[in-house]
Each structure stands twice: as structure tokens, then as C-alpha cells.
Design a protein that fits this description.
By secondary structure, the protein is of the alpha+beta class. The protein has one domain: 2-Layer Sandwich (D-amino Acid Aminotransferase, Chain A, domain 1), CATH 3.30.470.30. It is about 20% helix and about 20% strand. It contains 4 helices and 6 strands. The protein has helices at about 65-75, 95-100, 130-140, 160-170, and strands at about 40-45, 50-55, 80-85, 110-120, 120-125, 145-150. The protein is globular and about 40 Å long.
């Protein structure tokens, strides 16, 4: 990936765009849909050697989710902000919120990454979502245990199909909830 031009640094904390409840998903060609996992919304921020996993209220969970923090630290970027969701899975591979809430995850929390906000000093928020997702997918290419690119789907996709796609993405990243080791804290 060619180096990107440097621009003004982004504000220290960027609030994530949160999902909203609806009776049914909106339909049409202008809508992308992403599954809401049973986890914590995270803005993963890397500034050089420093990695922070910021909750939607601005709390840093990097020391609480060391596997995900180490994965962000291993990315081939000097700086980046990845919008995603931290999940802990049970022995069947299903995300279970209580495992994170009660810290019963053996520190094996993965980050489901679905948007790239900044890369090497360039604010990408004005870029089309398809461009940001393509750049994110390139940034995450290869195996990075603890982080996986999560695709978007059109409205006709079923929940079961979405869940299978997420499980495949996490598997391709090298992360298995049954065998994931605790990782050292990054940054």
C-alpha cells in the first residue's frame, strides 16, 4: 500500500455511529447492513506505538482486550482509527456479551472491524464507505489474530447468513475462541 499524505491529526476521541432500532431493515440499493454483535463498540486508535481501544464513552480497554490491542499494533500503519466491535465468543463460536461484561473471556477478545476512519494521518470520513471498507480490507489482509474485516450486506441477507460470514471472517483471521491465547498488552 503506498504511503498516504499527512494531514491534520483527528480529534482525540471520535464518537462511533451507533446502530438504531427499527421494525425492519431499510431496503434499497443505497443501504449497507452490518450485523450487531453481542459485544462492545470500539474505536481502535493507533498512534505510532500507542494503541487505545476506546469505548463509546471514551474508556480505554486496551489492557482489558490485549489480543485485539496487539492485533491493531501489528497492522502495517503508523496511525489508524478502526471502527469495530469487540466480541468474546463461547465454545460454539457465538458472541456472548456477558463474557465481556463479566470479564470471563480469558482475555481472548477479537475486534470485528467494519470501517476505517483514519489511516497514516489521512481523515477518510469524507471518502465513500466502499472506499474505506476496501482500504480497511487491504490493511487487514493476511492473518492478524484478534482482528477481522467484517463485510456489509444488502437487505436481503438473512441473519444466519450474516452470522456464518462473521464466523468465517474471524476464522480466516486466525482467531478461534476455543484456542485463543491471552496476548501481551500492546501500547
Amino acid at each position: 500500500m503506498p504511503p498516504r499524505p499527512r494531514s491534520r491529526p483527528l480529534a482525540d476521541f471520535i464518537e462511533p455511529c451507533l446502530p438504531r432500532r427499527a421494525d425492519k431493515p431499510p431496503a434499497g440499493p443505497d443501504w449497507l447492513h452490518e450485523i450487531k454483535h453481542d459485544g462492545f463498540r470500539i474505536m481502535a486508535r493507533r498512534d505510532g506505538d500507542r494503541v487505545r481501544l476506546l469505548s463509546r464513552k471514551g474508556h480505554d480497554f486496551a489492557s482489558r482486550f490485549p489480543l485485539a490491542a496487539a492485533a491493531v499494533a501489528a497492522l502495517s500503519a503508523h496511525s489508524c482509527i478502526v471502527d469495530g466491535e469487540a466480541i468474546a465468543c463461547d465454545e460454539k463460536g457465538l458472541a456472548v456479551l456477558d463474557l465481556i461484561r463479566r470479564q470471563q473471556h480469558g482475555r481472548a477478545v477479537a475486534l470485528c472491524a467494519f470501517d476505517l476512519i483514519e489511516l497514516d494521518g489521512e481523515d477518510l470520513r469524507r471518502e465513500p464507505i466502499e472506499t474505506r471498507k476496501s482500504t480497511l480490507k487491504s490493511l487487514l489482509r493476511g492473518k492478524h489474530t484478534g482482528i477481522a474485516f467484517i463485510s456489509s450486506w444488502m437487505a436481503r441477507s438473512s441473519t444466519a447468513r450474516l452470522a456464518r460470514s462473521v464466523a468465517r471472517a474471524l476464522s480466516r483471521s486466525g482467531w478461534d475462541p476455543r484456542t485463543a491465547p491471552a496476548a501481551p498488552t500492546a501500547g
